[in-house]
Amino acid sequence: MEATVNLGKILKVASWYLTCVDDRTTWRHTTAAGLAATWIALMLTIDLPLRNETRQLAAQLAHEGKRHPDRLRAASPPPASSDPRLAFVESLPPFDKCTEQLRELGVLAEQSGVVLASINYRYEPVPGLPVTKVRLGVVARGGAANQRRLLQTTLNAMPNLAVARLVYTKVADGTKLVKLKLDLDMYLQSRAGTTA
To answer: In this structure, what DSSP letter does residue 160 have?
Structure first.
């Protein structure tokens, strides 16, 4: 009898708490609870089976590696260079391509409808690397859209260029032309035998 009374009190208290929670919940709470339930359901239906399958595949590969070690070594790619600086240097064009790239800059400017008023440049070694930085000072005249096109096509065509400084000024002659002052850094592999 006493157990029945205690169970009745527990049910009344639980009913009271559920009623309080139900009165205070809004659509936001319901939405958040629904999203949490959806996330838990996805974890249980997708993530856990995928994790188990990945463990099984790893165990099979380990077992296969013990049985046939030569087959796995032949399939694995050669180890990449651990020094990213060497990969950077190898990705650069040789120093002999400098004049060719300067000509290409002129061609790209002409195709974009931009006039290159002047280009000055100087060579600077990059300390610790066999790389030469060519600092280009470019002054160009043309429409703003044409100059943006020139900048975009140049950076796409020559990935060894980096923009150091970019300044737009209006031309004072009343036209809609814009003067572009552009400092570019062109990175090239140094000549053989020269290092910084």
So the answer is: T
pLDDT tens, residue by residue, 161-191: 988 888 888 877 667 778 889 899 999 998 7
- C-alpha distances (whole Å) from 137 to each of 23, 80, 96, 118, 164 are 71, 36, 20, 8, 10
Q: Provide the β-strand partners of residue 182.
A: 138, 166
The CA R_g of the chain, rounded to the nearest whole Å, is 34
Q: Are strands 115-125 and 131-142 parallel, antiparallel or unpaired?
A: antiparallel
Q: What is the DSSP string of 28-91?
A: HHHHHHHHHHHHHHHIIIIIHHHHHHHHHHHHHHHHHHHH-HHHHHHHSPPPPPS-HHHHHHHH
Please, what are the domains in the chain?
2-61 (no CATH), 87-189 (3.30.70.60)
Place of tokens 């809609």: 176
